[in-house]
Predict the 3D structure of the following.
Amino acid sequence: MKGGVGKTTVAVNLAAGLGAHGCRTLLIDTDPQGNVGHSLQVDGEFTVGDLMLGHASLESVIVPEVRENLDVIPATTECFGLEQQLSATMQRETILSRALDSDAITATYDAIVLDTSPSMNLLTFNALLFADRAIIPVSMNLMAVIGARETLSGIEEVQRLWPERGLEVAAILPTFVDPRTRATRATQDALDQDPSIRRYLAQGIRQCLDLTYAAAKHTTIWEYAPRSRAAEDFSTLLNAIETDNNVQLKVAANA
Ligand SMILES: Nc1ncnc2c1ncn2[C@@H]1O[C@H](COP(=O)(O)OP(=O)(O)O)[C@@H](O)[C@H]1O
Ligand SMILES: [Mg+2]
């Protein structure tokens, strides 16, 4: 529920890392800002919005082989109109789930990663109703903690309204971590002390300019700076996700 906390960075590098490890991965952008497309220089003819509106088939919205084992369904600013275009549609929160409910998807992919926007809009609900698990990046400032609380209450609402979906929070992931700064320490304290913040992944993603340069050059951190501390942190995250389906969680002291 906050911009600039590292959602797209996590989605893109996680998805590319899974692909590089042999996991057949589909990355879906559900943020009309379309940053996934920019980050990976994806030029699709159609968007996730075209899929949801029924204007394009599932096959035609998937941009194949963007990277090794990585296909992408992009979004663009055209998707900003989706909420209004679908306002009269029944059960519109599950359109994406239904569009992706195909044997082809199950047979083709081992993992699906969704990038979301910083608000609880129709696309976000569609993403949360399709996903099994949520990773919530929290950058190291107190506004981001407030954003994370809002996201958690949005997820609780989804869990209450659609219990059969089984959506779980996999991890609260600290981002832009710089242990030398007061902001990082204050934010970590706030996360530690918040009873609603339970699945707190202690080792987050450190502040690392290479992530910004990588995105600007339309590359992943694995391509741009494989020896950087960001690549190291993303490897740790990737290993946690791969070795334990429920993510190796360091549960906060108060949980
Ligand atoms: N750990 C990090 N260290 C330094 N810069 C980062 C880090 N994570 C993300 N960034 C940069 O911060 C900006 C915002 O990140 P982004 O992933 O687009 O956030 P969001 O999707 O939440 O809006 C981008 O320029 C990105 O490259
Ligand atoms: Mg983003």
User: Anything to note?
Assistant: Residues 248-255 have pLDDT under 50 and may be disordered. The longest helix spans residues 142-161. The beta strands are 25-29, 63-67, 70-73, 111-115, 133-139, 168-175. The CA atoms of residues 67 and 215 lie 15 Å apart.
